[in-house]
Write a structure and sequence with these properties.
Layout: H1 2-10, H2 12-45, E1 56-57, H3 59-67, H4 71-80, E2 81-83, E3 89-91, H5 96-118, H6 125-133, H7 139-151, H8 158-175, H9 180-234, H10 237-243, H11 245-270, H12 272-287, H13 292-336, H14 338-343, H15 347-400, H16 405-446, E4 470-477, E5 487-494, E6 499-504, H17 510-516, E7 525-530, E8 533-534, H18 540-545, E9 547-550, E10 559-560, H19 561-565, H20 574-583, H21 587-591, E11 600-601, H22 610-623, E12 628-632, H23 640-653, E13 658-662, H24 666-669, E14 674-679, E15 682-687, H25 689-695, H26 697-706, H27 709-715
Parallel strand pairs: 6-13, 6-14, 9-12, 12-13
Antiparallel strand pairs: 1-3, 2-3, 4-5, 4-7, 7-8, 10-11, 14-15
Helix pairs in contact: 2-9, 2-12, 2-16, 3-5, 4-5, 5-8, 9-11, 11-13, 11-16, 12-16, 13-15, 13-16, 15-16, 20-22, 25-26
Length: about 725
């Protein structure tokens, strides 16, 4: 959660906008139940009369009510009404605060006057007025009469008292000839339009929230992918081996997708849940129903359920992503090795291997899915049980006169909003562990520092007019966590205009030695010099810009032939491209294609042969015009005729460059200026072909296995 919060903090402006929109949405959502309550209680129950503060009063009624008011109440009412010429008293201001003050001042006098008019009081209104006119009764005695009469009504709630006062106002309106039906209709229309406006505002806020949440999550996902890609590109071979290609692909795709999805949910639900939950609690408290304990029971039950589910499901979430890694790894291996699998009839074995990984993932996903499926019905059961409890206890309160029907409906709605808020948090709590694991895996890559980096004070400036002389001085190399050196005490110099060949048995360290030059790995001991400067003191970009590498396994990229040959840099001209293809002996098959250099190349170069891939890889290196050529067994897929022709063309066009060739075939390196024989990671011999035949048993053994007696005597290569 902390790492995901860090991603959100980086997009704080959008997060702030989403938060403000959620506040607006929550305000509308919390206000709507109150309007529903008003429609039921006021619009229907009270005939649209919202307050016990009448808009108009007859002079006689005004004076009768004044008889039973305290001095403070009379002052409040007198300040709120003015008498018109026809004697009718009209309310000056109908704002909420004024109406509530008048409510408090007039509701008890109205109830007492209603009792006098209906005969429910032992007193007679006419007699009381005569006694007041004759000065036979004081104000204190009138108030005492009011209190005595109201005391006989029993312990009735303020809601019932206000309801009776509203009925008095309705009777007054009817006595003045006002259309009470219109009063009710006007109130219903007014409240309905308010609800419609709030609903429209809430809809707009929800749409904008979804938009900004999606855009924010998409941008965070884009930034993470960019950072991941940049980090992976900077990795040396050691880091690539540590994570594996399949795992890095999963982390760059599936893991970031998990984080992106959770960010959308966090912005749309998790931020909204506490706003709506706290607001709902405040609204419930303000209803004054005395049933807040029901919410406590509901929330406690939900939290207990969530805790149990998390304790059960958390271990599975932690291994889910590693299972995705595993199935990606197996899928990649099987799909790239289909020809070999078919050649050895191992389809059944590979199907079983994939099926096991697939079942492991399926079972884990089924478990987490069942947890979710179990959670939802239980949550719905809790919500329905809460509704029943509210109706049960609310019905008793309505029967006792301490609650109105609309208030109970509002309470149910607010309670459901609070429960839904916790339900949303619960759903997210199920999603967060998996997203948390994904975020950890992303951060593991982002925090991994590549072992091979540029020094702060690189010596690029010293390399002006690079010649390309490459020197190994007592070089030793050991792979990470290996117990023995792969290379030991390697010393030689490869000079410009010369070809240095490296040969040896399989696994002797030929490719490892070549990989040290572009710093795919760094030497463990000793140093490699370029024109007298340690390559570790040169920036990687500068170093690799003078190298032309043709790897052992030819790699082509999706595009066309031209884009692959010009891969080194975009400013390679068409003339240089065609010249490089001619040197690499690739023009024959290129010209035979209808689209020639625009012919498409599929991913990995699967639509060209192995020899064609090698020739295009060689052309790519030649087109870059490097100072140093590195050929890692790059002629193995060529026939002998093409091999000889290609090497002659290379020799003619790379006369000033340093050429280092790793080869298995002696015929490829017969005419090299210097041949280095590697055996068990050390130099077993160094010299020309003739010198090594005479002085190096290891080379002589290789030569005898590949060349005839005539060729050994010098007849080869003529």
């Amino acid at each position: 959660m902390g790492k995901i919060a860090k991603y959100l903090a980086q997009a704080w402006p959008a997060t702030l906008i989403v938060f403000l929109l959620l506040v607006v949405q929550a305000f509308c959502d919390l206000r709507l139940p109150q309007y529903t309550s008003d429609i039921v209680d006021v619009g229907i129950g009270q005939g649209g009369i919202e307050y016990a503060a009448p808009e108009k009063l007859r002079e006689e009624t005004y004076e009768d009510l004044s008889l039973f008011m305290t001095a403070e109440e009379r002052n409040t009412v007198a300040g709120a009404y003015r008498q018109e010429e026809d004697g009718i008293y009209e309310l000056v201001s109908g704002d909420k605060e004024t109406c509530e003050k008048i409510d408090e001042a007039m509701k008890l006098p109205m109830v007492f006057l209603s009792m006098l008019n209906s005969g429910q009081s032992p007193y007679d209104l006419g007699q009381i007025k005569d006694m007041v006119a004759a000065g036979m009764v004081t104000e204190e005695e009138l108030l005492a009469m009011r209190e005595q009469a109201l005391a006989k009504m029993g312990d009735q709630s303020d809601t019932i008292v206000k309801g009776q006062a509203v009925q008095f106002v309705k009777s007054e309106y009817e006595a003045m000839g006002m259309d009470t039906g219109k009063v009710q209709t006007d109130f219903l229309w007014k409240t309905g339009f308010k609800m419609l406006g709030l609903s429209a505002l809430m809809l707009l806020a929800a749409i904008l929230t979804g938009y900004f949440a999606s855009v924010t999550a998409a941008k965070i996902g884009k930034n993470l992918r960019e950072k991941m890609f940049a980090k992976v590109i900077s990795f040396s071979s050691e880091e690539m081996d540590k994570f594996s290609t399949a795992s890095l692909i999963t982390r760059c795709t599936n893991d970031i997708q998990q984080v992106q999805m959770v960010i959308v949910v966090l912005l749309r639900m998790v931020l909204y849940a506490p706003i709506i939950g706290v607001g709902g609690v405040i609204k419930v408290v303000n209803t004054g129903t005395g049933m807040g304990w029901i919410i406590g029971v509901a929330v406690g039950t939900i939290l207990a359920l969530v805790l149990i589910l998390l304790l059960v499901a958390m271990p599975k979430f932690k291994i889910l992503q590693s299972l995705v890694d595993n199935i990606n790894l197996i899928s990649r291996e099987i799909l790239t090795g289909v020809p070999v699998i078919r050649a050895f009839s191992r389809e059944h074995y590979e199907e079983k291997r994939f099926d096991k990984a697939n079942k492991d993932l399926m079972q884990t996903q089924l478990f987490t899915g069942r947890v979710m499926n179990f959670m939802m019905p239980v949550m719905m059961l809790i919500m329905n049980a809460i509704t029943i409890m509210i109706v049960w206890f609310g019905g008793k309160n309505i029967d006792a006169g301490t609650m109105q029907v609309g208030s109970m409906l509002a309470f149910i709605t607010y309670t459901m909003q609070i429960v839904m808020a916790f339900l949303m948090l619960t759903m997210v709590s199920i999603m967060l562990p998996r997203a948390g694991v994904a975020a950890d895996r992303i951060e593991e890559v982002l925090k991994t520092e590549p072992k091979i980096t540029d020094k702060k004070d690189v010596k690029d400036a010293e390399l002006t007019g690079i010649k390309g002389e490459l020197t190994f001085e007592n070089v030793a190399f050991r792979y990470p966590e290996a117990k023995e050196d792969a290379l030991h005490d390697i010393s030689f110099t490869a000079k410009p205009g010369e070809t240095t060949a490296i040969i040896g048995s399989t696994g002797c360290g030929k490719s490892t030695l070549l990989n040290l030059i572009p710093r795919f790995y760094d030497v463990t001991e000793g140093r490699i010099l370029l024109d007298g400067v340690d390559i570790r003191d040169i920036s990687q970009h500068k170093l690799r810009s003078v190298l032309g590498l043709v790897p052992q396994k030819a790699v082509l990229f999706s595009g066309d032939i031209a884009s692959n040959v010009k891969f080194a840099h975009e400013d390679i001209s068409d003339e240089k491209m065609k010249k490089a293809a001619e040197i690499a002996q690739a023009t024959e098959f290129i010209d035979s294609k209808p689209e020639k250099y625009e012919s498409p190349i599929s991913q990995g170069g699967t639509n060209v042969s192995g020899g064609q891939k090698q020739r295009l890889s060689i052309a790519r290196a030649v087109a870059a015009e490097p100072k140093i050529f590195l050929f890692d067994d790059s002629f193995s897929a060529l026939d002998y005729k093409t091999d000889v022709t290609l090497r002659k063309a290379l020799a003619q066009n790379t006369a000033d460059a340093t050429v280092i060739i790793v080869a298995q075939r002696i015929s490829t390196i017969l005419h090299a200026n210097r041949i280095i024989v590697l055996e068990n990671g050390t130099i077993a011999g160094m010299g020309t072909h003739e010198e090594l035949l005479a002085n190096c048993p290891a080379y002589r053994e290789i030569a005898k296995s590949q060349l005839s007696e005539k060729e050994l005597q010098g007849g080869a290569g003529a």
